[in-house]
Design brief:
Largest sheet: 2 strands, antiparallel
Strand order of the largest sheet: 1-2
Mean pLDDT: 94
Radius of gyration: 17 Å
Number of domains: 2
Helix content: 40-55%
Strand content: 5-15%
Length: about 170
């Protein structure tokens, strides 16, 4: 059973450790230890029993996934809308990053009473993979982890555990 997230405590730890954690990740990116992918998999397996996402949902409250054309087609069909109707109602196009994203936060599909996703079965691939702890190639996602430290308790715990495991 996962542990409930104490969001106040999490934010305090982030404010205190964010810079050092980002520096640590930068060093790992430049000079990853041998078997970095295996280390990430081991740490990920240790992290998930410690984080109950349903007591947090900060990703859904403060971030937007990117919606791929496949996501838009799948979700709009699930909602019995055309892809264009779906985009018009819920999404905005970010020209800078060439991405479709939510118009608002928290996510329109998040139930704020229980932090559950109303389209969980057909959610965007970005949501399904979040926070990308074991995404291959791990070093290609360091910039994502550096950002997610302050949004995701699982990412924070991953970096905390890596700091303890990996010689700096």
């Amino acid at each position: 059973m996962s542990t409930a997230v104490n969001f106040r405590s999490f934010k305090q730890k982030v404010n205190h450790n964010k810079k050092a954690m980002r520096r640590f990740l930068g060093k790992l990116e430049k000079n990853p230890p041998r078997h970095m992918q295996k280390i990430a998999e081991i740490v990920s397996a240790e992290v998930w029993p410690e984080v109950d996402c349903l007591t947090c949902a900060n990703c859904c409250k403060t971030m937007s996934p990117t919606f791929t054309p496949k996501d838009i087609k799948r979700i709009s069909a699930h909602l019995e809308m055309t892809p264009q109707e779906f985009k018009d109602k819920w999404l905005m196009y970010d020209k800078k990053d060439d991405d479709w994203m939510n118009k608002k936060q928290p996510c329109q599909f998040l139930n704020l009473k229980d932090n559950k996703c109303s389209i969980y079965e057909v959610r965007p691939a970005d949501c399904a993979g979040f926070p990308h702890l074991t995404k291959k190639k791990w070093t290609d996602y360091v910039h994502v982890h550096q950002q997610n430290i302050e949004y995701c308790p699982a990412t924070y715990k991953m970096v905390e555990k890596m700091q303890a495991m990996v010689v700096k």
